[in-house]
Amino acid sequence: MEHRIKELRASFGWIQEQLSEKLDVSRQTVISIENSRYKPSLELAYKIARLFQLMIEEVFIFVKGSDEV
């Protein structure tokens, strides 16, 4: 799965710390998500999408043929 979180965060002019505060998660969590080391829960994924005023499919992109379900 790919995502646009870093790109969206930058377009809003937010630093990682600001995004983490808005999502009520640690800065390390934001870093891990942005670097694709951590996949957010469905609840957090929806929270991220709502924060950017987008549908979840506009933030997280399923890549066909990946080993993820």
Notable characteristics:
two-stranded antiparallel ribbon, mainly alpha, DNA binding, DNA-binding, 54% helix, 5 helices, 434 Repressor (Amino-terminal Domain), 2 strands, 69 residues
Polypeptide structure, described:
It is globular, with a radius of gyration of 12 Å. It has a two-stranded antiparallel ribbon with strand order 1-2. The protein has one domain: lambda repressor-like DNA-binding domains (434 Repressor (Amino-terminal Domain)). Helices cover 54% and strands 6% of the residues. It has five helices and two strands. It has helices spanning 5-11, 16-23, 27-34, 42-51, 56-59, and strands at 2-3, 60-61. Pfam families: HTH_3.
Oligomeric state of the chains in view: single chain
Query: What is the residue-averaged pLDDT?
Result: 93
Q: In the residues, how many domains can be counted?
A: 1
How many distinct beta strands?
Answer: 2
Q: What CATH architecture do you see?
A: Orthogonal Bundle
Shape: globular
CATH class: Mainly Alpha
CATH fold-level topology: 434 Repressor (Amino-terminal Domain)
Number of helices: 5
Kindly provide the radius of gyration, computed on alpha-carbon positions and rounded to a whole number of angstroms: 12 Å
Give helix % range: 40-55%
Strand content: 5-15%
Q: Mind telling me the CATH superfamily name? A: lambda repressor-like DNA-binding domains
Strand order of the largest sheet: 1-2
Q: How do the SSEs run, as a string of H and E? A: EHHHHHE
Largest sheet: 2 strands, antiparallel
Which stretches are poorly predicted, pLDDT < 50 over at least 5 residues? none
Please identify the structural class as seen in this structure: mainly alpha
Distance between the termini: 9 Å
Domain HTH cro/C1-type: 5-59
Keywords: DNA-binding
Protein name: Transcriptional regulator
GO molecular function: DNA binding
